[in-house]
Amino acid sequence: MPYPFQITSLEEYQLRYKQSVENPEKFWSEVAESFLWKKKWDKVLEWNFTEPKVEWFKGAKLNITENCIDRHLAEKGDLPAIIWEPNNPEERTRVVTYNRLHKRVCQVAQMLKNNGVKKGDRVCIYMGMVPELAYAVLGCARIGAIHSVIFGGFSAQSIADRLEDAKAEYIITCDGAYRGEKVIPLKDVIDDALVGNKTVKRVIVFTRTRTPVSMIKGRDIWWEDEMLYAEEQVEKNGVVKFDAEEMDAEDPLFILYTSGSTGKPKGVVHSCAGYMIFTAYSFVNVFQYQFPQVHFCTADIGWITGHSYIVYGPLAAGATSLMFEGIPTWPDAGRFWNIVDKYKVNILYTAPTAIRSLMGFGEAPLKDKDLSSLQILGTVGEPINEEAWHWYDENIGKKKSPIVDTWWQTETAGILISNLAGVTPSKPSWATLPLPGVQPLLVDESGQEVTEPDEEGLYKGNLCIKFPWPSIIRTTYGDHERCRTNYFATYPGLYFTGDGVLKDKDGNYRITGRVDDVLNVSGHRIGTAEVENAINMHSGVVESAVVGYPHDIKGQGIYAYVIYTGTHDAELTKRDITMTVSRIIGPIAKPDKIQFVSGLPKTRSGKIMRRILRKIAEGETKNIGDTTSLLDPNIVEEIKNGKV
Ligand code: WTA
C-alpha cells in the first residue's frame, strides 16, 4: 500500500509538482493530514524571507514521538523499528520492535524528567552509534527538550563551544564508543569539555565499552541505574505510558551545529511539525519506501543525514531502519556488503566518499555476498563522480536498482533535489529534479535569475530556493541575525544554499560544489576559517590560509598555507600543527597538506586571494590568472615553487 502522499509515476510527479507551486498551502496541508495531531493548525503558512520568519501549521499541537512511535503500535508493535548491527560482527545484534522502542523512549523521557529536564531545555548528546542514542534523541523530543547531538569526531574544545552556545544544562554520553579496532573514550572528552563550564548540571553516562571513567558526585549519573528506576515509573501491570508533551508546531525540536564560511559553527534550529512532515514525505518519496523494506542509512546520527534518515524520517513513516555502529572497512572492506546480506537490506543510502573508498578494494570484498535484496541505492553529502556512480550501479545495484542522488543540507533538514527511485529518471552525477514543494532558482553573482544557457546548453549559477518548504531552517540558535546574514541577505528575498549548480534544458540540476569558503571533506562540512583559526593557535604560526583541493577518496582534501616563523624542525612542526587542529576542532579537520610560505597572496586591501591558492593546491601553476592587483606578486612564484 503506498502512503497517501507517495508519488508513484512520472505523470503524477509532474502533476503534483505543478500543484505544489500553484497552491503550496493546499499541497502541504494534504500531506499533513496523514499525521497525528493533538490539535489541527489555524494557518498553513506565514512567511517572509526578509527577517526571515517562516511558520508552518501555526496553532497546531503535536508530539513528533507519537508520530514516530505510538501511532504504529497497533499494527507494528512487534515488528522491527530499529535493527542494530554492532561494531564487532561477532557480538549479538539487537532488533528493537516498535513496542520496545516505545518503552525505552518513555523510560528516557521519565529519566530526564526525574533529573529536572523540562520542555525547552537543551540536552547535548555525545554518544556512539548505539540504539540508546536513538532513545536519547526521541526521549528528549517526548518531553519537548531540545536535543543537540554532537558527532563523536569532535574535540573537547568543539563540544565546549557548542555547550556554551546552546547553554546546555544536560549531557547524555557513553563511557566509550567502538570504531573498528579503536575505543574512543567519549566520557573523557566530555570531562575535558566541562572544565570551566558553568551551565551543565547533569551528565548521564551509558555503559558501552566499560572504559574506566571518572564519575563526579552530584553531576555524573549512570544511565542504567536511572533507566531501571524510570522503568518502574512508566510500566504498570505491563502497560507502558508516558504522556508526550504537547508541542506547538513551531516549537524547536533540535539544534544541530554546522560549519559556515565565517566564524564558529552555528546552531541550526529545526521545528517540530515542519521537520516531521518533510522528513517523512521526502523519505517515502525519494526512496519509494514500502513496509517491510529494510532501510540502511550508513550516516552517523551526529550529522543531519542520521537525524533525518535513520531516526525521524523512517520512524515517522513506520519503517524499519538499520543502524550500524562500526565503520565500512572493519574487520574488512566487505562490511557493508555483509550487513546487506545478513539483514536482507532493501535500501542502501551512503556517501560518495564511502563508495570511492570501497571501490579502491576492488571486487574481492563482494565475493560470496548476496546483495540480491537491494532494490534502491542512494547517495548524499557531496557530488558523486561518474566513475563511482557506475561502480555503485554495476557492482552493488547490479544495474537493476535505481540510484537516487540526493542533494540537501543541514539547513534544509531533508532532501530537496533528487530523482524519486524508479519514478523519475536518474542521470549519473546529477541530482536531477526538485521534489514537489521545492522551488529552486538559479542566480548569477548579482542575484539576477540565470536565463541564458552557455554554449553547451547549460544554465550555470548559484543555487537559491525562492519559496519555503516545511523544514527550512528557522533560526541559528541565540543569534537570529546570523541566520539572516548567512542565508537570506546575499540575494534578498531568496534562501541561498552556498552551492554552485548547473541546470540542463530538461530542468535537471547538477550540484558542482560550494561557492563559499566551506569545504566538503569526506562529506563532512568544514569551514576554512575554522581550520585557519585552529592552525593560528599553534605557537610560531603567524597566519594561514586554507583551501580545498580535489582528493580521490575524500572528494576534497584540506590544503593549508602557513606562515611559520618558529625555529623548530619543519616536518615535526607540521605534525604539531595537525595535532593542534585535532585538539581544537577534531580529527576530521586535520589538514592533508601543509606548505610553509613566507607570505600569502593578498590584495592591497589585505584580502587573501584564495582563487590563486586554490589553483596552486590543485597543481595548476600555469593559468593562475591576473596577479597584478596583488600587494606582492612575487609571493605567487615562491608559493608555486615551494614544497608541501
Ligand atoms: C553538499 C548533508 C552534491 C552540498 C546532507 C551541500 C551535495 C552540503 C549533495 C551540505 C549531493 C549534499 N550532491 N553535493 N547529492 N548533498 N551536498 O549540511 O555542498 O552536511 O551544501 O548536509 O553538502 O552538507 P550538510
UniProtKB/TrEMBL annotation:
<dbReference type="Pfam" id="PF00501">
    <property type="entry name" value="AMP-binding"/>
</dbReference>
<dbReference type="InterPro" id="IPR025110">
    <property type="entry name" value="AMP-bd_C"/>
</dbReference>
<feature type="domain" description="AMP-binding enzyme C-terminal">
    <location>
        <begin position="530"/>
        <end position="607"/>
    </location>
</feature>
<dbReference type="InterPro" id="IPR032387">
    <property type="entry name" value="ACAS_N"/>
</dbReference>
<dbReference type="Pfam" id="PF16177">
    <property type="entry name" value="ACAS_N"/>
</dbReference>
<dbReference type="GO" id="GO:0019427">
    <property type="term" value="P:acetyl-CoA biosynthetic process from acetate"/>
</dbReference>
<keyword id="KW-0067">ATP-binding</keyword>
<dbReference type="InterPro" id="IPR020845">
    <property type="entry name" value="AMP-binding_CS"/>
</dbReference>
<dbReference type="GO" id="GO:0016208">
    <property type="term" value="F:AMP binding"/>
</dbReference>
<dbReference type="InterPro" id="IPR045851">
    <property type="entry name" value="AMP-bd_C_sf"/>
</dbReference>
<protein>
    <recommendedName>
        <fullName>Acetate--CoA ligase</fullName>
        <ecNumber>6.2.1.1</ecNumber>
    </recommendedName>
</protein>
<keyword id="KW-0007">Acetylation</keyword>
<keyword id="KW-0436">Ligase</keyword>
<dbReference type="GO" id="GO:0003987">
    <property type="term" value="F:acetate-CoA ligase activity"/>
</dbReference>
<comment type="similarity">
    <text>Belongs to the ATP-dependent AMP-binding enzyme family.</text>
</comment>
<dbReference type="InterPro" id="IPR000873">
    <property type="entry name" value="AMP-dep_synth/lig_dom"/>
</dbReference>
<dbReference type="InterPro" id="IPR011904">
    <property type="entry name" value="Ac_CoA_lig"/>
</dbReference>
<dbReference type="GO" id="GO:0005524">
    <property type="term" value="F:ATP binding"/>
</dbReference>
<feature type="domain" description="AMP-dependent synthetase/ligase">
    <location>
        <begin position="70"/>
        <end position="468"/>
    </location>
</feature>
<keyword id="KW-0547">Nucleotide-binding</keyword>
<dbReference type="InterPro" id="IPR042099">
    <property type="entry name" value="ANL_N_sf"/>
</dbReference>
<feature type="domain" description="Acetyl-coenzyme A synthetase N-terminal">
    <location>
        <begin position="13"/>
        <end position="68"/>
    </location>
</feature>
<dbReference type="Pfam" id="PF13193">
    <property type="entry name" value="AMP-binding_C"/>
</dbReference>
